[in-house]
Design a protein that fits this description.
By secondary structure, this protein is of the alpha+beta class. It folds into 3 domains: about 100 residues, no CATH class; about 140 residues, Sandwich (Jelly Rolls), CATH 2.60.120.1440; about 70 residues, Phage tail protein beta-alpha-beta fold (3-Layer(bab) Sandwich). The protein is about 35% helix and about 30% strand. Strands 1, 2, 3, 4, 5, 6, 7, 8, 9, 10, 11, 12 and 13 form a 13-stranded mixed beta sheet that branches. Strands 15-18-17 form a 3-stranded mixed beta sheet. Strands 14-16 form a two-stranded antiparallel ribbon. The N and C termini lie far apart (about 75 Å).
């Protein structure tokens, strides 16, 4: 790549002097086309690091500070020739390097973990970040993270304690929502069978986005609830987020739908929850349980709060 950059700069200088042969003009055109191809091939990829490097190359070549916006100004033709050469070489180098990294990524080995019925998995990632994966949840991540980011894919619920790396963001993909952090403690609840995705931050700061835009930035004890169907979201506050409790298997859920309540009972105990009063399904529920707690104790406490009773038949629980 170093020799190619020298050849490219030499051709640009000859072109501005009018000394290029037809063959050299063709070679220069091919190089420019390669730059365009590599640029357009990754339109759907977020490349903030690449953009930053390009900006640094441009400002460095122009003699302006990298952190200052460049206004319109006039330079001699020779100076602009040097800038054009430097920028084209830098952009081509960066994009070709990015393309090479993308090809290497296709050989990444991924690991998938699943927390079975009544289980909570404690996982340590390659960067020493910790994950507490609740029952019925799965998570997928590379054996070794990429150079520019740390990305995991979650289906279900997990609490993350992320090791801080300012130059390597940690991204949790959960359905249509992605949560981006540098180092913090937060929880994501994103079971595919539920309509809502819930993000809760214990400490630090996270940025939440969907497929099209950034939704919000959250800090200590702030939450975001996202509706899969409508794309609408709401932010709030939850002072009861504590990693230590969750890690010990103390599961707390607030204002939960019947679907979430039934899913948690299924994931934790393996029973199907049935409300004999269909109107009760429209209610919202707040409850908690420990993963070591027997089903009878949880149901007794739950029914006492809501003035109901229960019966267990086989693998079905009837609330009346």
């Amino acid at each position: 790549m170093k020799d190619e950059s020298k050849d490219l700069q030499r051709l640009i200088e000859k072109f501005h002097k009018g000394e290029c042969s037809p063959e050299e003009e063709l070679m220069l055109t091919i190089w420019v086309n390669r730059l365009n191809e590599h640029s357009s091939a990754h339109k759907d990829v977020d490349k903030p690091a690449i953009k930053e490097k390009m900006l640094e190359a441009i400002t460095s070549a122009a003699g302006a500070p990298a952190n200052r916006k460049i206004n319109n100004f006039t330079l001699p033709l020779k100076r602009w020739t040097t800038i054009a050469a430097a920028v084209l070489i830098a952009c081509l180098s960066i994009l070709l390097s990015y393309n090479s990294n993308q090809k290497a990524d296709t050989n990444i080995v991924y690991i998938t973990h699943y927390a079975g019925e009544g289980k909570m998995l404690h996982l340590s990632l390659p960067d020493s970040s910790l994950i507490y994966l609740s029952a019925g949840s799965s998570i997928r991540f590379p054996k070794q993270f990429a150079r520019l980011s740390r990305e995991v894919h979650l289906n279900g619920e997990a609490f993350f304690k992320v090791t801080r790396h300012t130059d390597k963001p940690f991204i949790v993909h959960a359905g249509p929502v992605s949560t981006r952090v540098l180092g913090t403690q937060f929880k994501v609840n994103s079971f595919l069978s539920l309509q809502s995705i819930n993000i809760e931050v214990e400490e630090g700061k996270v940025q939440v986005s969907n497929d099209t835009k950034v939704l919000s930035s959250l800090t200590n004890h702030q939450t975001l609830l996202y509706d899969r169907k409508t794309g609408e979201f709401a932010t709030g506050v939850n002072k009861t987020i504590h990693l230590e409790d969750f890690a010990k298997g103390h599961i707390i859920f607030k204002n939960a739908s019947f679907e979430e309540l039934a899913l948690r009972v299924k994931n934790q105990y393996g029973y199907n929850l049935i409300f004999q009063d269909s109107a009760l399904k429209a209610n919202r529920f707040t409850a908690d349980f420990y993963i070591t707690q027997p089903i009878n104790i949880f149901l007794s406490k739950f029914c006492s709060v809501y003035g109901k009773s229960f019966t267990i038949k086989g693998k079905e629980i009837f609330i009346r």
